[in-house]
């Protein structure tokens, strides 16, 4: 029994060394059984390797897509913040320019009139196209009163129509009409004209965007291009505020007076800052 075990062990060792020699030793080309076995093993490994590689590549692509998504999200947030900062910068630059112009305006006006100019910001604009009203951030606590004239650096834009504690409504010149009992016509004259021609701006022509000046005597001398200013005779608008320039002169009602079209100096659109004109009270 012991001899048989020894024989089996020796046969096993001999077989092991023969196999080692066939695979590692320098010998002649492989026989066809060896080639068959090697090809079969390689083909079998390929069947498992390709799907495994594809699955691994798929999960790698998913991870890569996730990284790209996060990077894209970060870039979008950065771009949005940049756009907001750029817009804010542009707004601040525009506001700074307007305030510099306003400062220069107040310095010029200080030499011309004894009025006090209270600068205010427009906080809301009435969406009703027929109302033509804006709201400013000055009110009763700031000493604002109804019928005070309101202007920009370019010229007259309207009057204070309602006053509240912390804000006021401003009625634009476009809303002035001779049939509106809530509005008041503007008594005007021509700047630098010694004859001081007189007229009343009573309405607004929405087709041409011009103010209509009526009750101008035919004897009054004026010409296209003259600057129209408030005369101070209406007891609402103080004297000397520029309103616009004469664009045309024609016959008025019944041919007795002139009808003068005045192009406003100030724009009624995109108003940002205004001046409320405070006239000292006569004691």
UniProtKB/TrEMBL annotation:
One of its GO terms (cellular component) is plasma membrane. Pfam families: MreC. The keyword NADP does not apply. Residues 122-278 form the Rod shape-determining protein MreC beta-barrel core domain. Residues 82-109 form a coiled coil. Keywords: Cell shape, Coiled coil, Membrane, Transmembrane, Transmembrane helix. One of its GO terms (biological process) is regulation of cell shape. The keyword Nucleotide-binding does not apply. It comes from the Bacteria. The chain crosses the membrane at residues 6-25. Belongs to the MreC family. Involved in formation and maintenance of cell shape. This is Cell shape-determining protein MreC. It comes from Paenibacillus sedimenti.
């Amino acid at each position: 029994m012991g001899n048989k075990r020894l024989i089996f062990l020796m046969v096993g060792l001999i077989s092991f060394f023969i196999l080692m020699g066939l695979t590692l030793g320098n010998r002649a080309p492989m026989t066809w059984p060896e080639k068959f076995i090697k090809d079969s093993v390689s083909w079998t490994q390929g069947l498992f390797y390709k799907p495994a590689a594809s699955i691994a590549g798929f999960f790698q692509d998913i991870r890569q897509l996730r990284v790209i998504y996060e990077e894209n999200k970060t870039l979008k947030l950065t771009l949005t913040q940049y756009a907001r900062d750029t817009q804010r910068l542009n707004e601040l630059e525009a506001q700074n320019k307007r305030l510099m112009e306003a400062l220069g305006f107040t310095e010029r006006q200080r030499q011309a009139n004894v009025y006090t100019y209270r600068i205010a910001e427009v906080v809301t604009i009435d969406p009703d196209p027929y109302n033509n009203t804006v709201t400013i951030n000055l009110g009763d606590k700031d000493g604002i009163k109804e019928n005070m004239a309101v202007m920009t650096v370019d010229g007259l834009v309207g009057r204070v129509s309602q006053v509240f504690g912390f804000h006021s409504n401003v009625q634009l010149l476009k809303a002035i009409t001779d049939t509106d009992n809530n509005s008041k016509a503007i008594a005007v004259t021509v700047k630098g004209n010694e004859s001081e021609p007189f007229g009343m701006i009573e309405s607004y022509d929405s087709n041409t965007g011009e103010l209509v000046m009526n009750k101008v005597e035919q004897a009054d001398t004026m010409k296209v291009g003259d600057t129209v200013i408030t005369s101070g005779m209406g007891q609402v608008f103080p004297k000397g505020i520029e309103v616009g320039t004469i664009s045309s002169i024609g016959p008025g009602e019944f041919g007795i007076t002139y009808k003068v079209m005045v192009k406003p100096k100030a724009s009624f659109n995109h108003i940002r800052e205004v001046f409320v004109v405070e006239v000292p009270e006569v004691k």
